[in-house]
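hey m, so remember when u said the tokens were messed up on ur end? i reran from scratch. heres the input so u can diff it against urs
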Amino acid sequence: MPELIETVDLTKIYHLGDVTVNALQGVTLSIERGTFVAIMGESGSGKSTLMNIIGCLDRPTSGHYWLDGMPVEGLDRDQLAEIRNQKIGFVFQTFNLLPRMTAMENVQLPLLYCRDPGDADARAMHVLGLVGLADRATSLPTQLSGGQQQRLAIARALINEPEILLADEPTGQLDSHTSAEIMRIFQDLNENQQITLIVVTHSEEVAQFAHRIITFLDGRIIGEHQEGRSSSVSDPQAEAVP
């Protein structure tokens, strides 16, 4: 499979007053199209910094990043925003839903920046169906459980049909059973929708869902191995998402 993401010698340095933080120190990696990658490491290891650079939310201090063959570091702010809108979906630990908007309205928000949104209602219902929330389209976020809110956040990330889905600690606020449900949704999106998935996590159980696990420490890659992919997180009663 062709490489979708490639970085060479990425560094990222932050200056916090008199303190210099080397968040990334020469990170080189490639990620093939259609794979599911977990990035693991303790807080401050650099994994979220890498995800922000891959997601075109931040720029490296030095090094090179190619996205689908395009050199990203030379793009201006508007070009980066267009790439984010067209190619990348984001899912975070905090759901970032607007409480006074229905599920359908929350999902449709990224379409405000789309040149041709088409049938917004149909697109929203399609992605709500992908995450098992088609019957909750008119519900407010406060009427949904934590797991349902995260599924709604995933649907919102899918509305523009991204090639890449980036998830930063997506199960951090969820119990183990609900985490398993969320990870099975990610697994299904990867297998059936051919979306390239990159998940940042502290959890070894969550990482087992990925094809490939990359471990960070002090801004460097210190390990990598392939996985056979789990179908559950220690959940013998795991079934399809209700």
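this time it looks ok to me. The chain has seven helices and ten strands. if urs says something different then somethings off w ur setup not the seq
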